[in-house]
Specification:
Number of strands: 15
CATH topology of the largest domain: Rossmann fold
Strand order of the largest sheet: 9-8-7-10-11-14-12-13
CATH architecture of the largest domain: 3-Layer(aba) Sandwich
Oligomer: single chain
Number of domains: 2
Distance between the termini: 28 Å
Structural class: alpha/beta
Order of helices and strands: EHHEEEEEHEHEHEHEEHEHEHEHE
Radius of gyration: 20 Å
Number of helices: 10
Shape: globular
Helix content: 25-40%
Largest sheet: 8 strands, parallel
Strand content: 15-25%
């Protein structure tokens, strides 16, 4: 008996403009990632560690692939990072995400990886805050005023309704000034305040996001004395900003994926000062592991960014794009 033939599907191409027009809320992505980590905890996903390598000047390339059968998709992302690019008028992160329909393996979409990475990274940080931020958190600190800084302000404002202030620092004064001018009061009336160094941004903050460039050779600056009781740190720049002394002083240490952190330690020499991980995000969400027990505990989460977050975000993007007929159709 011959199987019924299936039509070859067109490929939907979505650039930044098309993705922005979908108007996908950050809060919806936080909910989507929460469900994703539950699926991961149940063993319903597949994800090898990312491929990541550095070039001189703290440039890097990375490739990330995964499959989530319950969502119906697999995806692979190829991207580059160059901290010198902003001075050239180019993005720090550039790349493409290729999405496949899992049932047939057909390629169904190509989309801007910078957009996907920015949204899902911030949503994943907000998800950690959903579980680990103190109930009356008022001050957010952002180290880095690029794409990730902007996305994190939006995501945290949506998730932590008690936030009143955002203290920011960037090594480029012009970028910091633009950030303050454009975003002061934009999200829930949060007052954005520029500072003159990382310490002044971090001290007294309830939630701290470290979003500097991922460096070949670490130059960490954050020490435990800067971190107030009850603070939550989410590091999205590997271990670039946080000193080993600070890591070991935290009451709870988390990551988004055990295997990926171990792989980065073995292959890249990262996280050598990390002596324990109390839980990953899937264990925290699905099983309640390593949840804050009081308002004094200081918590550090290493969110390296995982490929499954790309798949979950892409699945929602495609759902909305198909519904609204947005994107350029390409013939395979």
């Amino acid at each position: 008996m011959s199987r019924e033939s299936q039509p070859v599907r067109n490929i939907t191409y979505l650039n930044k403009s098309a993705l922005d027009s979908l108007d996908i809320s950050m809060s919806s992505l936080v909910d989507i990632l929460e469900e994703l980590f539950r699926l991961k905890a149940e063993g319903q996903t597949l994800m090898p560690p990312k491929i990541f390598f550095h070039l001189p000047g703290d440039r890097f390339y990375s490739a990330m692939a995964s499959c989530c059968p319950p969502l119906g998709y697999a995806a692979s992302k190829w991207q580059s990072g160059d901290p010198s690019n902003p001075s050239r008028g180019l993005p720090y992160i550039q790349g493409l995400l290729i999405v496949n329909e899992n049932d047939t393996g057909q390629m169904v979409a190509i989309m801007d990886a910078k957009w996907v990475t920015g949204k899902r990274t911030a949503a994943a940080s907000a998800l950690v805050a959903r579980y680990q931020a103190c109930r009356d958190s008022k001050i957010l600190a952002l180290l880095g005023c690029g794409v990730q800084g902007r996305a994190h302000l939006e995501a945290m404002a949506g998730e932590v309704s008690t936030l009143k202030y955002c203290q920011v620092y960037d090594i480029l004064p012009e970028r910091q000034a633009t950030f303050v001018d454009e975003l002061n009061g934009r999200f829930n009336g949060i007052q954005v305040i520029g500072t003159n160094n990382a310490e002044n941004a971090v001290r007294n903050a309830d939630i701290i996001i470290t979003g500097g460039s991922i460096q070949i050779n670490r130059k960490p600056t954050i020490v435990s004395d800067w971190i107030k009781p009850g603070a939550l740190i989410v590091a999205i720049d590997y271990d670039s900003y946080v000193t080993d002394e600070c890591i070991n002083a935290m009451d709870i240490v988390l990551t988004d994926d055990h295997e990926q952190l171990d792989d980065a330690r073995k292959k890249e020499g990262k996280f050598l000062g990390v002596n324990r991980i109390d839980a990953d995000n899937a264990q925290m969400i699905a099983y309640g592991m390593a949840i804050r027990e009081n308002e004094k505990q200081r918590i550090l989460a290493f969110n390296l960014g995982i490929a499954l977050e790309d798949v979950a975000t892409a699945a929602e993007v495609l759902r909305q794009a198909n519904k609204k007929a947005i994107g350029v159709l390409l013939e395979p």
